[in-house]
Design goal:
Layout lengths: L1 H17 L10 H20 L3 H27 L5 H30 L2
Helix pairs in contact: 1-2, 1-4, 2-3, 3-4
Length: about 120
């Protein structure tokens, strides 16, 4: 799935970013950011083997995690852990992922209505 691959790539990008955060952030913002980023792909993977309705629920959790990443990226920029450009790149990728997740959720809902 393309959406899964994009989520994996985003998680790896975030992992590279948090390695540059100050050590005191290891169990604070860095931990929250990587957990939220990884949660996107994890929920897509976990839900993909479920029923359509259950998959939709997992996709909602992935979508929520993506939006949590927006806040983490903003906080990282405000604390000067990442550049404005990196924050903008994160937001572009999160927006793309969010749109893909929303589209897939809508697709699954339509398929459920046709049953």
């Amino acid at each position: 799935m393309k959406i899964y691959q994009k989520a994996i790539e985003f998680g790896e990008l975030v992992d590279a970013q948090i390695k540059t955060f100050p050590k005191e952030e290891t169990y604070r913002l860095a931990s929250q950011f990587i957990r939220a980023a990884d949660s996107i792909a994890l929920n897509i993977a976990e839900g993909s083997s479920s029923s359509r309705a259950n998959f939709n629920r997992y996709l909602q959790i992935a979508w929520d995690s993506a939006h949590e990443c927006v806040v983490c990226s903003t906080k990282a920029r405000l604390r000067s852990f990442i550049t404005v450009e990196m924050d903008e790149k994160n937001r572009e990728l999160i927006t793309e992922l969010s749109k893909m997740i929303t589209s897939y959720k809508n697709y699954l809902k339509k398929k459920n209505l046709r049953k």
